[in-house]
Amino acid sequence: MPRNRTAHVLLLAALAGLTPPAAAQTTWDIDNTSSIGGAAVVDVVGSPTVVPTPFGDGLRFDGNDGLIVDANPIAGAAAYTIEMLFRPDPIENVSSNQPRVLHVQSAIPPDHRVTLETRVTGDNWYLDAFVRSQRPGQSNPSVVNSLAIIDDTKLHPLGEWYNFTVTYDGQTLAAYLNGQLELEGDVDVLATADGQVSLGMRHNKVNFFEGVIAKARFTPQVLDPADFLPAYVPGDYDRSGVVDAADYALWRTSYGGAAALGEGADGNRDGRIDAADYTVWRDAAPQAVELANAHHAVPEPSAAAFVLLLALAARRPTFDRSQHIDP
């Protein structure tokens, strides 16, 4: 389309109040309180604290703080995926039992909204996802299309890292935890109008969160769960938060077996425990060969040969998946 015609179409769309087309996939590192993903943080409540996480620095929220980012990366998307790497912690404030952890909010009207929420009960939590939109020209704010999906029987322990993902394909709202479908339901909502995103609280500065948020990713289409962000460090097969000899030991004992995609020592998410998964661990572990050697305190001849292969592999930039390794 010629440039002047494109500009004309965009101008007409703006005058008509239409939502602009969605942008490309956007990843936010939640690691400061001034600018997130290149967008300005326009409001900070309390004192979110920068803390180390397995995924780089993140922000800790203590139940009385949050922030608002002046951007909506899914504006205009009729279908989308919102992912969040976060750790919900045991709460100290009773009022933190229904937090809005990530809240996409448009102007009011039209009051379009998408929220990733939790509900805390004792030492556990369960997820809650919500979406709503109001049709153009609806003057009554109570006339909306909305859906909340929630199930208080699907409990998960606090204090652990999760990928909480919400997808909408134009018909079905779905919520996933670590790539596994938890809940879904049908609803007809409009593409989200432009607006802002609040983190650690509801957009109107209530329903605060206690825990840590490391990353958020916004995609203007529905992703396959196999392509979701992993909720663990690559190579951290025992999910301890550290890539070390224990992960190598788990890979070695699992070698040759099958696994659910991304589970256990399946580092490359192909459902098999093989040499490629050793490569994932090797590339992530500091002093990988030394750790492997230490695991074999008194190597038998076959094990010694394997250690030699590890030493040779460590010098290579990639590992040939067709090679067979006997752990």
From TrEMBL:
User: Does Glycoprotein appear among the keywords?
Assistant: no
Q: Which Pfam families does the record associate with it?
A: Laminin_G_3
BP terms from Gene Ontology: polysaccharide catabolic process
Top-rank lineage group of the source organism: Bacteria
Instruction: Spell out the InterPro entries in the cross-references.
Output: ConA-like_dom_sf, Dockerin_dom_sf, EF_Hand_1_Ca_BS
- Any signal peptide, and if so, which residues? 1-24
- Keyword Signal applies: yes
Q: List UniProt keywords, sorted A-Z.
A: Signal
- Tell me the protein's name: LamG-like jellyroll fold domain-containing protein
